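Hey Z.,

So I finally got round to the glutamine thing we talked about over coffee. Here's the setup:
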Amino acid sequence: MFSFTTVHEYHLSLINKKYSCLDAVNYYLDKIWEKKHLNAFVEVYRQEAIEKANLLDLIRREGKPLKKLHGVVIAIKDVICYRDHRVTAASKILQNFQSLFTATALQFLIDEDAIIIGNCNCDEFAMGSTNENSAYGKVLNALDEMKVPGGSSGGSAVAVQANMCMLSLGSDTGGSVRQPADFCGIIGLKPGYGTISRYGLVAYASSFDQIGIFGKSVQDVKLLLDIMSGHDKMDSTMNPEPMCTPAVKEDYKFAYFKQALEHEGLDKEIASQIKSYIDTLKTAGHEVTEIDFDLLDYIIPVYYVLTTAEASSNLNRYDGIRYGYHSSIEPNNLAESYLTNRSEGFGAEVKRRIMLGTFVLSAGYYDAYYSKAQQIRNLLIKEVDKIFSVFDGLIMPVSPTTAFKIGVNTKDPIAVYLADIYTVFANITGVPAIALPLFSHSNNMPFGIQVLCNKKQELLLLQISETLLSLTKKALKND
Ligand code: GLN
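And the result:
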């Protein structure tokens, strides 16, 4: 039976003729079929994936060298454009819309011979933390099907968690890769802002959005990052500097926010596990320093003011006239046409955010909300600069709780927003961050820690991640 550990080992087994790319694709197609009820995929590119696998098997047998992602089976979130394939952002307003071009990041993967197996379910326009705001219905967490997988990239997380693909892409505006990775017990990386091209990523909040990676090994996540981080002139917000090459180090200097670990909303068991992990880090020779962070309570309001403002502007383009959902009600005038198309096409959460964003941008409230939030964003960026002038990494929880029951938070959007407290900081400040699955809760659900590094320090972040993961493996063995 086919099994997958890392791309490197998979390639060795292809070279040794233990498996073919077709074996891999068939294995994942079977898994997708078997676990259809988890609702992780919006569409599966079955025929295409089989044809590509056959082609790659032929190329390999001709003795041609393998490209970096030869036969690597990857799923993408339904917000990433793939020419001639549907992209809908899990929204009725884009139902049946076909991409006219391919996102640069995805093209980089295809150019390295990746096999794209399908696109994954998510919260509508990537707005949410549970995957319950999708026009295609909820996604189930494979570890406990009564629970949410997290969101907004819930389908992409479950696709990796439940072995329906080797790696997957999500998008992370305020935690949508790291939080579902945490809820599903896998690795989730959000690169720094400007590291991966956003060209072809459906926009939610353009100064926060980044394509992120789900995987089960740091090595594979790094491989995708290396390939996707190539410069793209189609995205003028890309940071043209290459990622820094980190020095090889044994011991790191970490900080953590006192207020983050003492926050009343943080599950007690998560807090105590992270605290004892900090002790383990110190015993292993790392320096870990508690620092004060008085701005913690501002970060959720800053995030929701700025992202809804950007979303209200970005989502203006969906009017149901040029493309997308068009209401069957005959309008009396143009305004009514916009109104019916948008009222019927968007879901409740998206409407809530468009209204909130329009409000904070309105003439009477702009200074009180939007400008204030921008000022605090600048303060937070200065704070992060200070932290990383001293420390290699910042440690935080990923989410205040483990995955919760489907349906429990649907009536209280504020409660869901507040749970983004630990993830939005990296998006507000534009630094890279990763969720690492380290622990198991007494409720049997996984959780881990989040590590943040300075801008352009993704490779340091991944180097640190290897160290931290191997430390728990050792700690577990010693138990
Ligand atoms: N939960 C956050 C939100 O709803 C994060 C979304 C995201 O990262 N796309 O805005």
